[in-house]
Amino acid sequence: MARVVVGLSGGVDSSVAAWLLKEQGHDVIGLFMRNWNDASPTLEDECPWIDDSRDAMLVAEQLGIPFQILDLSADYKTRIVDYMFAEYASGRTPNPDVLCNREIKFDLFLQNALKLGADFVATGHYVCKGSEMVDGQEYFRLLRGADPNKDQSYFLCQLNQEQLSKALFPIGHLQKSEVREIAVKAGLHVHNKKDSQGLCFIGKVSLPDFLQQQLKPKEGDVILVERDSPEVLQHAQRMQEENAVELWVQKPSFTRSSGKIIGKHKGAHYYTIGQRRGLHIGGTGLPLFVLQTDVNENSIYVGLGEDHPALLSRALEADAQGMHWVNPSAKMLLKSGEKMQARIRYRQALFDCHIKMTENRQFCIFLTAQRSVTSGQFLAVYYLEELICSATIK
Length: 394
Description:
Blueprint: E1 3-7, H1 12-23, E2 27-34, H2 41-44, H3 49-63, E3 67-71, H4 73-89, H5 96-115, E4 120-122, E5 127-134, E6 137-144, H6 161-165, E7 167-168, H7 176-185, H8 207-211, E8 220-224, H9 230-240, H10 245-248, E9 260-265, E10 288-294, E11 299-304, E12 312-317, E13 324-325, H11 331-335, E14 340-343, E15 351-357, E16 362-371, E17 378-383, E18 386-392
Parallel strand pairs: 1-2, 1-4, 2-3, 4-7, 8-11
Antiparallel strand pairs: 5-6, 6-18, 8-9, 10-11, 12-16, 13-18, 14-15, 14-17, 15-16, 17-18
């Protein structure tokens, strides 16, 4: 049996993961990651890390396994929080959960686990892991979780082969209901604990409130763009062109003359494409959706209805660094022109697509137009059940 260090978060998923590994006879160690350390009363009072660490410690006591608290808050601030602030300030929308898994859980946490003599690290993610031999070399595969409502493979889309080789996902083959049933039978006190929402360091504080810690409010105009505006009509025309991927990836370019001012906002850097909530403007009939933000002019452009043409795209372009291959052996699929599936946000239904790579550019072409393609988020590409590669959206 192996020595496995489990990332005990104080929730039911990681607790059941640890219980399953213990039942299988592994030498299990529980490690709680403290990722945020801020003495400001606005945030510290709302962050549940103290309660979560206590729950994790009690689970470790119930299981009879060693337990430690690992303070990664300094690195978390540098690698995740500062990155998030910088992305929002530039008008892009980051996904700190993806970066947290790549930079913290399966990098710094993994390094600390290896120092404890671990053969593997384990988490409570709803994903599965497989492997295959290609030309005599073993490649590890990141597979979707069995529970379609809880599949978290998207959040692991930036892992590499070395990280996957050391990872275990004990609950990936289970439904969430089964996990809770196991927790009840095992007598784990967290069996009915609610799932955590968002990142711990935000806690119950809204994202704008958190961002205001560094990105100060700055009042600006909310501008309504009608469906028949020249910019929207031009965008719709580009979407009708055939075999024109370089046109499809172009986004509408609005200016202050593109529409009329209908209200005020507290800072363009607090908003993202496709956002509906937080505008606080009524009397418009159909709901308003953010079409574009301009952090330089501090303006937000909005449209009526979720089917506004400016929200739709037929393709996206990957950022300059191109595709990150979770499973490099899958590159051969592109040469064969295989149809892929993808998602551009967590919990989104998979959609059919093709990947096109030129010498200097990488595109994802949608077989059906997609809403709210957002710069800074991640494209995750799947072939059958496997997440094979990912890229930051340009």
